[in-house]
Amino acid sequence: MKILAVDTSTKHLSLAVSEGDKVLCARNAAPRKDLSMSITFDIERVLSKANVRLGDLDGFVVGLGPGSFTSLRVGLSMVKAFVMVTGKPVVGISSLDAVAMNVRASRVSRSVQVCVINDARRSLVYSSLYDKKDGSLVRHRAYQLETIDKVLEGLEGEVVFSGDAIPLYRDRIMVASGVYKPVFEPPARWLPKAQELARLGYQRLLKGEVDRMEALVPLYLYPEDCQVGGPKGAA
User: Tell me, what's the pLDDT at 213?
Assistant: First the structure.
């Protein structure tokens, strides 16, 4: 099963082409100024390097955020266009899940807690909490838009933190620790990567757990403007 995965939730464009569990080609780079113009070129490039044509693909996976709403719409619109042209299935996955999947393999020989914190500005973070083991991911919290103090409530044991809000809140996390032991992932693992979206999407596609194209929208957690997804703390 050949898959194209796309994430445009951050300042960095992430693309991947995979076959089964194997990543054929991946690209993680800062996009050009006009993402809507450059994304087509970048997708053509990654498909060419993977030696895969658009018509060879068996499905698509797209990161739904939360993140930059404008960029998310560009990525989602592009994937929807491909779905319409090819008639192939599509899966939408939160970009926070992809960040949680970045936790390095040496940590997942046993089950570990992973807390993802991405900067949402306004002194808030996008966050969720997971258990990860052997490449499997179980989410235990709704996707949240909260203060860092709210996110830290109730944490126990070793907690692996990842996400681009770590530089902003590392000191606060350390000060608040007591019943939990914080471990921080390095910067290279803070952003969502399309190759991890592809791995998550592959499992869903195998099970036939696909999404209706018309129902896919960016996961937008700010309730007061441009509300598209669920309200604050929506599951």
Answer: 92
Find out whether 75 and 8 touch, Cβ atoms under 8 Å.
yes
Same domain as 165, residue 111: yes
Alpha-carbon span 5 to 197, nearest angstrom: 6
Number of domains in the chain: 2
pTM of this prediction? 0.90
Contact of 15 with 4, CB cutoff 8 Å: yes
Distance (Å, whole) CA 34 – CA 168: 28
DSSP state letter for 30: P
CA dist 158 to 32, 43, 105, 175, 182, Å? 39, 39, 16, 15, 6
The residue range of the domain holding 198 is 2-95+192-215
H-assigned helices in the chain: 35-49, 69-86, 95-101, 148-152, 166-176, 194-206
pLDDT < 70 stretches in the chain = 31-32, 105-109, 224-235
Asked if 146 and 129 touch (Cβ cutoff 8 Å), the reply is no
